[in-house]
């Protein structure tokens, strides 16, 4: 077994901690799946040792493609405990990011707690839907407004369907101090036999096309409030990416070989687990780092 495989095994300890807390509290384990782009300077054609595995990737933050690395990540949480579960470099050998997400779900350890997979609209596709159904996991994900629905058996883009509904078909839902007009659709989507889909507008932006947001849930027993509330926890993976870039060097690393970068990404979740363990998993990554720095300053 290689060194990185031994370290990678430690990530199961993080999942065990979160799973145990979830079972004890009767709460779900939230699994967020997403990716981020780490921009790097394009090397000169004369560079003797350019970084391996770089390429052009679409940046959600900047809009156009940027040069660098695309990193696939997974985040697990329950209650106030939130941990990095996995970071992997997107590369042809691993397949597309959807392939990597399927691989992650296949390797997910067993747990006695329900698991809710949270993802944005880039991941709510039929392949991942089929995998979460196979694994007994609930999917809650965003949808693009052009997603096809079948109200009354008629094919219709979600954005057109939302505008065709009279005001009486929407009701107010309060989530985290904010209110949203919500219509619940239950039925088929392309490649999906039956799902609950929420069409929502902020209270003060009803009917405005740019304000429309759609959320899919594979478990139709969940209420509208539960679906929207659970989805808000997906934001934790965005915070995780930002903290890893700020504090752990995910943005500024200078190692050049693909193998070294892959090993570095295996270590990051272990480091994240270590810093949070300093506060018995009751703080944030930044709080754990500050605790560690204070500890070092006492010597």
Core attributes:
single chain, 299 residues, alpha+beta, Transposase Inhibitor Protein From Tn5, Chain A, domain 1, 10-stranded mixed beta sheet, 9 helices, 12 strands
Annotation field: number of helices:
9
The tally of beta strands, per DSSP, is 12
What is the CATH topology descriptor? Transposase Inhibitor Protein From Tn5, Chain A, domain 1
Strand content: 25-35%
Provide the structure class. alpha+beta
Order of helices and strands: HHEEEEHEHEEEHEEEEHHHH
Q: Tell me the major beta sheet.
A: 10 strands, mixed
Q: Assign the CATH class.
A: Alpha Beta
CATH architecture type: Alpha-Beta Complex
Mean pLDDT: 91
Distance between the termini: 37 Å
What are the low-pLDDT stretches, counting only 5+ consecutive residues below 50? none
Categorize the overall geometry. globular
- Count of the domains: 1
Whole-angstrom Rg: 21 Å
Percent helix range: 25-40%
């Amino acid at each position: 077994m290689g060194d990185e495989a031994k370290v990678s095994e430690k990530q199961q300890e993080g999942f065990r901690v979160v799973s145990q807390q979830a079972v004890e509290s009767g709460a779900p384990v939230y699994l967020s799946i997403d990716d981020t782009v780490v921009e790097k300077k394009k090397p000169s054609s004369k560079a003797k040792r350019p970084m391996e595995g770089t390429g052009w990737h679409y940046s959600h933050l900047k809009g156009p493609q940027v040069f660098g690395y695309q990193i696939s990540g997974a985040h697990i949480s329950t209650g106030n405990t939130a941990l990095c579960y996995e970071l992997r470099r997107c590369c042809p050998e691993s397949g597309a990011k959807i392939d990597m997400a399927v691989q992650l779900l296949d390797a997910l350890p067993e747990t006695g707690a329900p698991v809710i997979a949270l993802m944005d609209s880039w991941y709510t596709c039929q392949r991942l839907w089929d995998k979460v159904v196979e694994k007994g996991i609930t999917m809650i994900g965003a949808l693009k407004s052009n997603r096809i629905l079948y109200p009354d058996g008629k094919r219709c883009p979600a954005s057109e369907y939302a505008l065709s509904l009279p005001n009486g078909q929407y009701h107010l839902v309060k989530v985290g101090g904010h209110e949203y007009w919500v219509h619940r659709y239950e039925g088929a989507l392309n490649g999906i036999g039956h799902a609950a889909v929420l069409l929502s507008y902020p209270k003060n932006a009803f009917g405005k096309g740019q304000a429309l947001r759609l959320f899919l849930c594979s478990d139709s027993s969940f209420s509208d409030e539960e679906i929207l509330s659970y989805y808000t926890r997906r934001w934790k993976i965005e915070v995780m990416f930002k903290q890893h870039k700020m504090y752990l060097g995910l943005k500024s690393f200078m190692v050049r070989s693909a193998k070294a970068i892959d090993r570095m990404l295996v270590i990051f979740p272990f480091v994240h687990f270590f810093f949070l363990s300093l506060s018995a998993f009751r703080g944030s990554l930044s709080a754990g780092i500050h605790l560690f720095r204070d500890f070092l300053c006492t010597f």
